[in-house]
Amino acid sequence: ECKKVDMSVLEISGIIMSRVNAYQQGVGYQMLGNVVTIGLAFFPFLHRLFREKSLDQLKSISAEEILTLFCGAPPVTPIIILSIINFFERLCLTWMFFFMMCVAERTYKQRFLFAKLFSHITSARKARKYEIPHFRLKKVENIKIWLSLRSFLKRRGPQRSVDVVVSSVFLLTLSIAFICCAQVLRGHKTFLNDAYNWEFLIWETALLLFLLRLASLGSETNKKYSNVSILLTEQINLYLKMEKKPNKKEQLTLVNNVLKLSTKLLKELDTPFRLYGLTMNPLIYNITRVVILSAVSGVISDLLGFNIRLWKIKS
């Protein structure tokens, strides 16, 4: 049953926030972080094990040999203690790092849900489906509430702290990519012979998976908030209402003009999704683009056998 009630921006946003808080988010990326954490913690031991022992030798390996491979040296008491401390240190620090990435992913997911429910407010069918308030932009007061609600929801949750974490991880990913490219250029045939190169590849793969997820959520959130088709639809409805109710033409014309100004305002204010720390600083952006793309160009040119450039300096 639909009822007509007077609600403020805080009341509407409270209902939307309660719907978002009731949503059960998945634990897929949290499990991915845990798997990568355990893999990186055991990586030095596993690298020594599979490098020094064949599959046939693994069947008859003794506990003393396993302890020697775990320590990387003869298993005396000080070395065993140092190896255990090093193992737990790697485990805890890596888990903390991916825990922050999971928090950032959940925050971005929450932002996307806010934007998704906000975009359904003017649709009666979708508003009924998600049990949120519904109103049409047929009055100036409704447009004012719609813009205020949009601004209010965009600022919910942690903003700067999460964006700084994501931008720092993005710069770390670019740095690892540059190091890997330099190692490949130095000798691509011997690239996988070193343990640290394997570890770099594991880190790069895991970080890229998280960054692709965050970039996807961020771009989808921006699309929801900057979707001017909602305002265009409301303008068409106003024109149709003018034909049915000529006596209210002056009032509807005023609302239509406000909708046009709102459309222009959203186009001026909204920007494409971008990672906070990198694109805000033009110097860092240009240095990163030149250095990273130069390294990638060199790797591709070395592997393919002909020169290729992935960037171009514009004057």
Topology:
Layout: H1 9-22, H2 28-52, H3 55-58, H4 63-71, H5 77-119, H6 124-130, H7 140-154, H8 160-186, H9 195-225, H10 229-244, H11 249-269, H12 276-280, H13 282-304
Kindly describe this structure.
- The chain is mainly α and 315 residues long.
- The chain folds into 2 domains: 272 residues, no CATH class; 34 residues.
- Helix content is 76%, strand content 0%.
- The protein contains 13 helices and no strands.
- Helix 8 packs across helix 9 and helix 10 runs antiparallel to helix 11.
- The longest helix is centred in the N-terminal third of the chain and has 43 residues.
- It is elongated and about 95 Å long.
- It starts with 8 loop residues before the first helix and ends in an 11-residue tail after the last helix.
- 17% of the residues are buried.
In short:
This protein is mainly alpha-helical and 315 residues long. It is built from 13 helices and no strands.
Order of helices and strands: HHHHHHHHHHHHH
Structural class: mainly alpha
Q: Largest beta sheet, briefly? A: none
Q: Rounded to an integer, what's the Rg over CA atoms?
A: 28 Å
Q: Label the overall shape.
A: elongated
The total domain count is: 2
Number of helices: 13
Strand content: under 5%
DSSP E strands, number: 0
> How much is the average pLDDT?
81
Q: How far apart are the first and last residues' alpha carbons, in Å?
A: 63 Å
Low-confidence stretches: none
State the helical fraction. Answer: over 70%
Protein name: Putative homeodomain transcription factor 1-like protein
Organism: Equus caballus
Transmembrane segments: 27-46, 66-85, 164-185, 197-215
GO molecular function: DNA binding
